[in-house]
Amino acid sequence: MSKCSISFSDHRFRLVSYQSLLGIASNYFPLLCFRRCLSQGCPTLCSTDNRPFPDYSPKKPTIRDSEFVHQISTAIKLRRSEPLRHILKPYESKLRPDHLIWVLMNIKNDYKLVLDFFDWACLRRDPTLEALCIVVQIAVASKDLKKAHALICDFWAKPNRDISSSYSQFVERLIYTYKDWGSDPYIFDIFFQVLVEAGMFNEAGKFFEKLLNFGLVVSTDSCNLFLTRLSINSDGIEMAIKVFNEYPEVGVCWNAASYNIIIHSLCQLEKIKEAHKLLLQMELRGCMPDVVSYSTIICGYCHVGELQKVLKLIEEMKIKGLKPNPYTYNSLILLLCKTGKLVEAEEVFREMIKQGIVPDNVVYTTLVSGFCKLGNVRTAYRLFDEMRTRKIIPDSITYTAIIHGFCLTGKIMEAVKLFREMISRGFEPDEVTYTTLIDGYCKAGEMKEAFDLHNQMVQRGLTPNIVTYTALADGLCKRGELDTANELLHEMSGKGLQLNIYTYNSIINGLCKAGNLAQAVNLMKEMEVAGFHPDTFTFTTLMDTYCKMGEMAKAHELLREMLDRGLQPTVVTFNVLMNGFCMSGMLEDGERLLKWMLEKGIMPNATTFNCLMKQYCIRNNMRATTEIYKSMGAQRVMPDNNTYNILIKGHCKARNMKEAWFLHREMVEKGFDVAASSYNALIRGFHKRKKFMEARELFEEMRKHGLTAEREIYNIFVDMNFEEGNMEFTLELCDEAIEKCLVGMAKNETT
């Protein structure tokens, strides 16, 4: 059986039979394993030699160019005390990008002169990517890492930059200029850091793997930055853990900081046992846990209420000579307060002070709040006084905790006094503070004061929340005036609390979204009893719910009632109805509605027309779709993204590829974003008609914009490129398909 070989840059790798490779093109997972073997230097598949960096071979200057470059170089060297703008003024008009690089060759050993000359050149035009990379290389070789970092950051900070193509070009130029301009591998660390800081995690991962081909591994500190940025949100934590598990296989040596990042991430996911297991593994792997490692685990166990494990870990820390830090103590004190062990919490607090750790505002507030919740306001106030004696300034949260304690114990006058003191000291009470005091007034039966405070709260621009209303409802119920939250709305309007139409509309909207339509309708009736008349938004909200339920008769009845009340429907109202008609298959009614709108002078928008066009496209009735599109133009309604995407997919489905192609071009020219589904439809349509050039152009355009093609589309181009002998691009597409299609599908199935 014949063998085949395929070239990857300077290396040639021996592959399996032609038939086996053909199988790879239709099954992505084996190819993923194959690519991993290449990057890890699998001895059975490839040479273990690292790829060498390319030699730098720029364009050679002509004799005239050489003379010009020599003149500039000599001038700036000999007259370096003068401003460059004066020295170089005679040469400025003739200076080309190539001249910049040739001059840099002559002055590369004079770092300050390099920077001055480069800055001067940048003021006149943007440097080429090659020139930028050269200066970055020189900066790193001169140990000016801060400047190198800033230059790369400035490049990525420019607006409207195409991330995908810019990344590839920058990496290519950085590698190309490395050998002759710096040869300091830290340049790659800096670039990796910039990618991570910019949130370009996929590119950072690709760059890490690319460096492996040259025998380079990014430093642990840079990898730690990668872990940290990945773990900022829950979506990235799993990726951070994956990186942590995989990178040691290629030479990354994690340190205590690395472990601490992952331990913290696991705790964020509430995987405390896994985090604790990793802590135990640290020592076995030759990495000693530090106080941060233990404190993070302790905080995790505190969060889930595992007091005994927390105490055991603290003892373990002390045996190892690690002193608990403020973070450790604060976590333990918070747990003890939450579990009602306030005496023990204060004992830990006193031990903390004996250890020389100065308590902060947070730990004092935790204790104050804990004692107040238990009703032990005396001790809480003693700690409050102690806090001020130590010149630790209480904040609004501390004041609110004490006010809450006084209110709980019925000491409303003391609470009010403290509330006024809080304001006099420049602290702004928030919704929680006001609600706490309102609750105190309500519990004391002082409803007038409670409502006055509520009005004051509103006047200050604060929005009462459900807790506020619950407190007021509770107070009114105790006076026999209210029983439920719905009755509260009615009674509050009667008692002078100024709830407005927006409050009711928000509640009605929430009920509709929750599927409680009957309650929403009842609340609308109660609004009128309370003196608030439903407005256009109220009716539109209810109509939308009826339309989505397919109850068009009830929606139409609401429209009539709305018109009878003299309320003017908006275009949103009619779009709700239009969407309802279309979803119910009542396209003729939808068209009659559109005609009626135009007769009444109500201008439809793109959404109105889109609803109809989408349904006609689904029915494959492109003649009707085109008529509606023409009507849209006649009314001078501008199409939007959805309009074009609906039409493109509709024409592709109807095999009108010429029309679909025209619409795509028009859409792009107008600056609209083509949806992935439209690209997929266009590519599939052109491929079926053997219009391979158009299909390929669209596929590359789609990839350039970072859109994910369907798996079927990837299969088309994997097979096409394989048959053409473009093996490296075939492999690249396979990898991309795995990452974007199969991995994405797996994630969706998991979620």
Shape: globular
CATH topology name of the domain at 51-194: Serine Threonine Protein Phosphatase 5, Tetratricopeptide repeat
How would a textbook summarize the main sheet?
2 strands, antiparallel
Structural class: mainly alpha
CATH architecture of the domain at 51-194: Alpha Horseshoe
Q: In order across it, which strands form the biggest sheet?
A: 1-2
Fraction of residues in helix: over 70%
Report the uncertain regions: 1-48, 743-751
Radius of gyration, whole Å: 35 Å
Instruction: Tell me what portion of residues adopts beta-strand conformation.
Output: under 5%
Q: How many beta-strand segments? A: 2
CATH class term of the domain at 51-194: Mainly Alpha
**Straight-line N-to-C gap:** 45 Å
Protein name: Pentatricopeptide repeat-containing protein At1g05670, mitochondrial
PPR repeats: 255-289, 290-324, 325-359, 360-394, 395-429, 430-464, 465-499, 500-534, 535-569, 570-604, 605-639, 640-674, 675-709
Organism: Juglans regia
InterPro entries: PPR-containing_protein (IPR050667), PPR_rpt (IPR002885), TPR-like_helical_dom_sf (IPR011990)
